[in-house]
TrEMBL record:
<feature type="binding site">
    <location>
        <position position="237"/>
    </location>
    <ligand>
        <name>[4Fe-4S] cluster 2</name>
    </ligand>
</feature>
<feature type="binding site">
    <location>
        <position position="35"/>
    </location>
    <ligand>
        <name>[4Fe-4S] cluster 1</name>
    </ligand>
</feature>
<keyword id="KW-0408">Iron</keyword>
<dbReference type="GO" id="GO:0030313">
    <property type="term" value="C:cell envelope"/>
</dbReference>
<feature type="binding site">
    <location>
        <position position="257"/>
    </location>
    <ligand>
        <name>[4Fe-4S] cluster 2</name>
    </ligand>
</feature>
<dbReference type="GO" id="GO:0044569">
    <property type="term" value="C:[Ni-Fe] hydrogenase complex"/>
</dbReference>
<keyword id="KW-0003">3Fe-4S</keyword>
<feature type="binding site">
    <location>
        <position position="192"/>
    </location>
    <ligand>
        <name>[4Fe-4S] cluster 1</name>
    </ligand>
</feature>
<dbReference type="GO" id="GO:0051538">
    <property type="term" value="F:3 iron, 4 sulfur cluster binding"/>
</dbReference>
<dbReference type="InterPro" id="IPR037148">
    <property type="entry name" value="NiFe-Hase_small_C_sf"/>
</dbReference>
<feature type="binding site">
    <location>
        <position position="234"/>
    </location>
    <ligand>
        <name>[4Fe-4S] cluster 2</name>
    </ligand>
</feature>
<protein>
    <submittedName>
        <fullName>Hydrogenase small subunit</fullName>
    </submittedName>
</protein>
<dbReference type="GO" id="GO:0046872">
    <property type="term" value="F:metal ion binding"/>
</dbReference>
<dbReference type="GO" id="GO:0009055">
    <property type="term" value="F:electron transfer activity"/>
</dbReference>
<dbReference type="GO" id="GO:0009375">
    <property type="term" value="C:ferredoxin hydrogenase complex"/>
</dbReference>
<keyword id="KW-0732">Signal</keyword>
<comment type="subunit">
    <text>Heterodimer of a large and a small subunit.</text>
</comment>
Length: 361
C-alpha cells in the first residue's frame, strides 16, 4: 500500500496470505470543538472493550498502537505528538487510522491572527497548529478516517444556528466524496456522546477489514454503519406498543409513549433502545428520557426546542387515537378471555376435557 506521499509500507505489515495489515496505528485527535465525551463514553465499551483490542485479545485483528491523550501512557508533549508528526510528514512507520472527535471550525472566517482550536505547536515557529492544519496533512496519508460522535460527524452543538465558529462535520470539511488510502469513505459513528459499543463494533469491523478478514463496513448515504442506524428509535423502543394503541404519556413519570411530551423517536435513526447504554442497560426512552435526535445530521436545530411536542406529533397522535382505542378495547376483551382457565380443569369424578381415544373400540 502506497501513501499519498509515495511512501510504501513494507511487506512486514502483512498479517498472512490474505494480504492484510499486521500492525496499524490509531491516531486519535479530540481537539475538535468538543467536550471529549466520546472518548469518555468509549472507555465504557465491553463488546469489545478498547483494552481487549489494544492488548491483542480479539482474534484476527492486527497489532494495535493507540495514541489517545486520555489513554496515553506517555507524559504528553513531544513524546505524545511524535507519531502524529511522523504521519503528517508521510513517514509513519505503520499504516494508520485517523479518529477525529469534535466538530471542525471554519478557520477561513477568522480575519488576521487567531485560531479556534489547536493541537501542539509548530516545531519551527512555536505557533499553535490548528486542527485544520492537522486534517490537511494527515488525511491524505490515512489508511482510514473515522469520525466519532455527532460533533465530528455532522457538526453537532457547535454547528447550530447562530454559532460564530462556522463549525461543521468532518465530511463537510473534507468533502463527502473523500476516500482514504484504503479507498474507504469517512466512517461516521454519531451520538452525543457516541454509544460505546456502536463505536467499538464499527472500529473493530474497520480493523478486521485492515487485516483482510472482512469487507468494508456497509454505510448509508450519511456514512453511518447501516446495521446500527438502519432502524428508528421507535422500532426498538419498549414504549412503541403504547403509540400503536394511541396511549400517550402526559408527563415524564409515565411508562407510556412519550411522543406528546417531546420524543422524536419515530423519525430518528438510532439503536440505543435495543442496545442500551452500558452493559445493555439504559437507552434514553427505556429510562424515561425523550429522544432529542442526537444521532441525526440535523441535530440540534431540527429538534429544538427540546421537550416540545415534535412537528407532526399532534397530527399523528390524533390519527392513531381512534384506531388505538379500538385495538385497546379488542385486546382487552381477548385478554380477559385468555386469562380464564378452561372449565375441564377440575377435581370431579368425570373427565370433561374431550379426551377421545378414537382408535379404541
Amino acid at each position: 500500500m502506497t501513501t499519498a506521499s509515495g511512501t510504501r509500507h513494507t511487506s512486514e505489515h502483512s498479517a498472512d496470505g490474505r494480504g492484510g495489515i499486521g500492525e496499524i496505528d490509531i491516531l486519535w485527535i479530540s481537539e475538535g470543538m468538543s467536550c471529549d465525551g466520546d472518548t469518555v463514553s468509549m472507555t465504557a465499551a465491553d463488546q469489545p472493550a478498547i483494552e481487549d483490542v489494544v492488548q491483542g485479545l480479539i482474534p484476527g485483528l492486527p497489532k494495535i498502537n493507540l495514541y489517545n491523550k486520555v489513554l496515553s501512557p506517555t507524559l504528553g508533549g513531544e513524546e505524545f505528538l511524535a507519531p502524529f508528526r511522523a504521519a503528517a510528514r508521510g513517514a509513519s512507520r505503520n499504516p494508520f487510522i485517523l479518529v477525529i472527535e469534535g466538530s471542525i471550525p471554519n478557520q477561513n472566517i477568522i480575519e488576521g491572527d487567531g485560531y479556534w482550536t489547536s493541537f501542539g505547536n509548530d516545531e519551527d515557529t512555536g505557533e499553535p497548529l490548528t486542527l485544520n492544519w492537522w486534517l490537511d496533512h494527515l488525511t491524505p496519508h490515512a489508511w482510514a478516517v473515522v469520525a466519532i460522535g455527532t460533533c465530528a460527524t455532522y457538526g453537532g452543538i457547535h454547528a447550530m444556528a447562530g454559532n460564530p465558529t462556522g463549525s461543521m462535520g468532518l465530511a463537510d470539511y473534507l468533502g463527502w466524496d473523500y476516500t482514504s488510502q484504503a479507498g474507504l469513505p469517512i466512517v461516521n459513528v454519531p451520538g452525543c456522546p457516541v454509544q460505546p459499543e456502536n463505536f467499538m463494533e464499527t472500529l473493530t469491523w474497520v480493523l478486521y477489514h485492515a487485516a483482510g478478514a472482512a469487507p468494508p463496513p456497509p454505510l448509508d448515504d450519511k456514512l453511518r454503519p447501516q446495521w446500527l442506524f438502519g432502524r428508528t428509535v421507535h422500532e426498538g423502543c419498549d414504549r412503541a406498543a403504547y403509540y400503536e394503541q394511541g396511549d400517550f404519556a402526559k408527563d415524564y413519570n409515565s411508562p407510556k409513549c412519550q411522543v406528546k411530551v417531546g420524543c422524536w423517536g419515530p423519525v430518528v435513526n438510532c439503536n440505543v433502545p435495543k442496545r442500551g447504554w452500558m452493559a445493555g442497560i439504559g437507552g434514553c426512552p427505556n429510562v424515561g428520557g425523550i429522544c432529542i435526535g442526537c444521532t441525526m445530521p440535523g441535530f440540534p436545530d431540527a429538534f429544538m426546542p427540546f421537550m416540545d411536542e415534535p412537528t407532526g406529533g399532534s397530527l399523528s397522535a390524533t390519527l392513531i387515537r381512534p384506531y388505538g382505542a379500538f385495538i385497546r378495547r379488542m385486546r382487552g376483551i381477548t385478554n380477559f378471555a385468555v386469562n380464564q382457565e378452561p372449565k375441564w380443569r377440575h377435581n370431579e369424578p368425570a373427565l370433561t376435557s374431550g379426551y377421545d381415544p378414537h382408535w379404541r373400540s
